[in-house]
Amino acid sequence: MKPLFVRLCVLGFLGLASGISVNAVFLQDTKYAHFKSASQGQELVLQLEKQNLKEKQNLKQDIKPPSQHDTPYVASVPRKQQLEAKIKDVLALQPVAAPSNNKKLSVVKDVQSRLIDLGYWPGQPDGIIGPTTKAAIMAFELDKGFEQTGIADEALLSVLKGKAVLPARRSKPEELAKNSQELIFTLQKALTKLGYNTGQADGIIGPLTRKRIRAFERDHNLQVTGRISGRLVEAIHKALGTPLVLARL
């Protein structure tokens, strides 16, 4: 019994010693290795956070408040291009309107030239329809028995050139007459201011207005007609010391 017991004790001791050795060698190293890995992970996290913080600080330093001298931001470029395109479109359309204005200017000049040839003074042929030109047209229209309009257009030019008997216009007579009423109203106010009282200014050439026109013509060495004419308007201009400004009725 004793040798067997001794053997068992020795085997047990050897087994215990082996277990202690295994625990000391493998298990403790594994635990230490785990601890060591966690420590390295924490250090790595801290390094990354420091790097991220540093990058954020550098980014804040790079960002500067906008200055009025800075170039426009990218989003404004398309808007600028759109505006430039619109400006080009407007500029491209301008030459289209020019021929129409030039044509109108040419018509008015031709009307003025023809009126001078026929003895009706419209002022210098400049292509501008002012009070003197309107008055000359109205004098011509009155002498021909037309509705007094004072309008210089191709319809009147055809009559002045002998190509038509009457001005062919589509507007109603009352609408055409309104153009001459503005000049009559202005002349009535001017004559009254100069001491030739025409009564209530109404834009209509009545007996009293004609009487005052004749009186003014006599006093200023004009041909006495009692009608509105280019010479009458120029004489009123001179008497007032300032050009007439047409009233809008």
Secondary structure layout plus pairing:
Layout: H1 2-62, H2 76-117, H3 131-144, H4 154-160, H5 173-193, H6 207-219, H7 230-240
Helix pairs in contact: 2-4, 3-7
What is this entry, summarized?
The protein has helices at residues 2-62, 76-117, 131-144, 154-160, 173-193, 207-219, 230-240. With 249 residues, the chain is mainly alpha-helical.
Please report the number of helical segments: 7
Beta-strand fraction estimate: under 5%
| Percent in helix | 55-70%
What does the radius of gyration come to?
A: 53 Å
Q: How would you sum up the global shape?
A: rod-shaped
Mean pLDDT across the residues is: 78
Helix and strand string, N-terminal first? HHHHHHH
For the sheet with most strands, the description reads: none
Poorly predicted sequence stretches spanning 5 or more consecutive residues: 24-36, 70-75, 90-99
Work out the number of β strands: 0
Distance between the termini: 148 Å
Query: Which structural class do the helices and strands define?
Result: mainly alpha
3D architecture notes:
The chain contains seven helices and no strands. The chain has 249 residues and is mainly α. It has a domain of 148 residues. Helix 2 packs parallel to helix 4 and helix 3 packs antiparallel against helix 7. About 12% of the residues have low confidence.
